[in-house]
Amino acid sequence: MSERLTTEGFQGYLVVTLSYWVFTLTDGAIRMLVVLYFHQLGYAPLEIAMLFLFYEFFGVVTNLVGGWIGSRIGLNRTMQIGIGMQVVALSLLAVPTAWLSVPYVMAAQALSGVAKDLNKMSAKASVKLMLPKQQESARLFKWVSILTGSKNALKGGGFFLGALLLAQFGFQMALLLLAGMLLISLVINWLLLSEEIGKTQHKPKFSQLFSRTREINWLSAARFFLFGARDVWFVVALPLFLASTMEWNHLQVGGFLAVWIIGYGIVQSLVPLWLKRGQHLPDGKTAMKVALMLAVIPAGIAWGLVLQWDPAWVVTLGLLLFGVFFAVNSAIHSYLILAYSEHDKVATNVGFYYMANAGGRLMGTVLSGWLYQMQGMAACLGWSALMVLIAGLISIKLPR
Fold first, then answer.
1. How confident is the model at residue 343 (pLDDT cuts 50, 70, 90)?
2. Separation of alpha carbons 16 and 20, rounded Å
3. Strand-pair partners of 277
4. Is the N or the C terminus of the chain less surrounded, counting Cβ atoms within 10 Å?
5. Which domains are seen in the chain, by residue range?
6. Which tens digits make up the pLDDT trace of 377-400?
């Protein structure tokens, strides 16, 4: 019986991972398409950041209610709904340029934000439920690190793909090609994934959406500031800095961001091999130490820019180093949220945790456009260092 469960779990894991990969590839491509295309049209940094405002805001809302919905209808269904909504969002953006006003793009991005976080919440929560209970601990850390790391590598590939499609086919055709990829993924998911993943006998009440578990609340708070620290320089400031200050073309910008995310994903997949010592797995103390080390890096990059060192070397090499430590910290968080969660609460806990994640991205996205437009890249990195430091101090409260 145990072998049968393992086989079924592995097949489900492959289907979930494939769906997650395709979705992530297209999501990264959309982000790069929107940033570069609207920069090309002459939009200011803050205006470009506002295009993603509803994308991040509705991600917060989706993560709050997504786990509750998944526990009622099944995580496979929430994943399929997410893929379908992304196809619609892509189709809405593939219209003549004259239609692409800021409110219109914000509305389409809102739909994309809901789709992305439904997909991510479903994939992450499914991993725990596919493992037999007696095999969780170490295997859970390994499987969730592989899923998350490979997702980020594919997101990096999506950045490059978006820049490449924009250069070769233009904005509208690129979006239609991405929508076709998602439709194929949706059919495979619909045919092969079990209908019962994450569906609980006990239906949680809406009042149970907000976590009342101390360690999950603290972990979610740390996650909020960790991802705010990344997106405050990554979402808008960095691609515009590379395109304007360093005068890189679309493919160079997309290529660098792709290398950053792919390297980050590879490191994240390898974290279990680096951190595991015998039977000891990472805990709150590990998360705190890595966050405090990470905070030094953006502070150092900002200082280098203030001193007017060569920005090409300071920013590119500094942010590659940031990616290594950020990947380790993120992988530890992704393991801890599942380790802290009981089976019947995993969907709602993961949803609550990724609500905090999306909230941090929302804060970082708005600050990225505003700070870069008002004070430049050094200010974005200074705020990044402060947010990582806060995440590290919050992690002191996590179980040791």
1. low
2. 6
3. 280
4. N
5. 2-195+210-397 (1.20.1250.20)
6. 999 999 999 999 999 999 998 887
User: Phi/psi of residue 277, each to 5°?
Assistant: -125, 105
How many residues does this entry show for the chain?
400
Q: Are 266 and 298 in contact (CB under 8 A)?
A: no
Q: What span, in angstroms and rounded, lies between the C-alpha atoms of 43 and 29?
A: 19
**How does pLDDT run across 235-292, given as a tens digit for each residue?**
889 999 998 888 888 888 888 888 888 888 788 777 776 765 545 677 888 899 999 9
* In 308-345, alpha helices (H): 311-340
How far is 359 from 361, CA to CA, in rounded Å?
5
Buried b (16+ CB within 10 A) or exposed e, 110-131: bbbbbbbbbbbbbbbbbbbbbb
Q: How far apart are CA 132 and CA 5, in angstroms?
A: 7
Q: Which long-range contacts (CB under 8 A, 24 or more apart) does 161-164 make?
A: 161/25, 161/28, 161/29, 161/32, 161/254, 162/28, 162/29, 162/30, 162/31, 162/32, 162/33, 162/36, 162/254, 163/32, 163/33, 163/36, 163/250, 163/251, 163/253, 163/254, 163/255, 164/251, 164/254
* Total Cβ atoms within 10 A of residue 374: 10
Q: Which amino acid, one-letter code, is at 142?
A: K
The secondary structure of the chain in percent helix, strand, coil, rounded to multiples of 5, reads 85, 0, 15
280 bridge partner residues: 277
Residue 277, classed as helix, strand or coil, is strand
- The answer to whether the beta carbons of residues 69 and 125 sit under 8 Å apart is no
Structure tokens, 150 = 């490979």
DSSP category for residue 280: B
* 352: amino acid identity, one letter: F
How far is 110 from 4, CA to CA, in rounded Å? 41
Nearest CA-CA partner of 260 in 156, 368, 365, 155: 156
Give Rg (Cα) of the chain: 20
